[in-house]
């Protein structure tokens, strides 16, 4: 199962450090981001009990960095970070109006540059990943696609400034 992690106060070298570890880690994806959270990660675990250890292995002492977790409970048409690699990317954390999370999931999946989504259990309702090959195209998708979607109460979007993507695991499971 995937777990989405947003970290405040993340070390700016975390992407390079994790890239050097290679494929033998629960971490599938980590990015430095703009906004309230300086990093976003996708961890692969086999059960909920592994989450604290995977967070510690990725970010060190989680009480020092300010961590927010989100667990996907309903994936969108594409799963986050199994998808196309764009030159530029962003993650939008969306709070849906009451009873509208499925509508938001559907509406955001048709926005140009859509690259994955999920309804999540966390401090927000829907997580959406967008990408584009130019900054202007990405900004246009966010401004004219995301913000025009019905059912959104509020959103918080962060641009990706650097990332490491392990890709699909050939065999075995994350440790």
| CATH class category name of the largest domain | Alpha Beta
How many independent structural domains?
2
Largest sheet: 8 strands, antiparallel, barrel
Order of helices and strands: EHEEHHEEHEEHE
Instruction: Give the CA-based shape.
Output: globular
Please state the oligomeric state of the protein chains shown: single chain
Uncertain regions spanning at least 5 consecutive residues: 171-175
Whole-Å distance between the termini?
12 Å
CATH superfamily placement of the largest domain: Lrp/AsnC effector binding domain/regulation of amino acid metabolism (RAM) domain
Chain-averaged pLDDT: 86
Rounded to the nearest angstrom, the radius of gyration is: 15 Å
CATH architecture of the largest domain: 2-Layer Sandwich
Distinct helical segment count: 5
Taken as a percent bin, the fraction of beta residues is: 35-45%
Could you explain the architecture of this structure?
It is a single chain. The chain has an eight-stranded antiparallel beta barrel, surrounded by four helices. It starts with a strand and ends in a 10-residue tail after the last strand. The protein is globular, with a radius of gyration of 15 Å. The protein contains five helices and eight strands. Strand 2 and strand 3 form a beta hairpin. It folds into two domains: 71 residues, Lrp/AsnC effector binding domain/regulation of amino acid metabolism (RAM) domain (Alpha-Beta Plaits, 2-Layer Sandwich), CATH 3.30.70.920; 86 residues, Lrp/AsnC effector binding domain/regulation of amino acid metabolism (RAM) domain (Alpha-Beta Plaits, 2-Layer Sandwich), CATH 3.30.70. The C terminus is likely disordered. It is α+β, with helices and mostly antiparallel strands and 175 residues long.
């Amino acid at each position: 199962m995937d777990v989405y992690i947003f970290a405040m106060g993340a070390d700016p070298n975390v992407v390079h450090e994790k890239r050097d570890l290679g494929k033998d880690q629960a971490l599938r994806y980590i990015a430095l981001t703009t906004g309230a959270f300086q990093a976003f990660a996708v961890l692969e675990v086999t059960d909920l009990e592994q989450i604290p250890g995977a967070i510690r292995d990725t970010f060190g002492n989680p009480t020092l960095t300010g961590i927010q977790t989100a667990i996907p409970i309903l994936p969108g048409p594409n799963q986050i970070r199994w998808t196309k690699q764009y030159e530029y990317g962003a993650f939008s954390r969306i709070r849906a109006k009451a009873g509208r999370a499925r509508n938001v999931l559907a509406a955001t999946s048709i926005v140009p540059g859509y690259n994955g989504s999920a309804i999540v259990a966390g401090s927000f309702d829907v997580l959406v990943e967008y990408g584009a090959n130019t900054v202007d195209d990405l900004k246009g998708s966010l401004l004219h696609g995301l913000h025009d979607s019905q059912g959104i109460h509020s959103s918080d979007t962060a641009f990706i400034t650097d990332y490491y993507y392990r890709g699909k695991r050939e065999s075995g499971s994350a440790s």
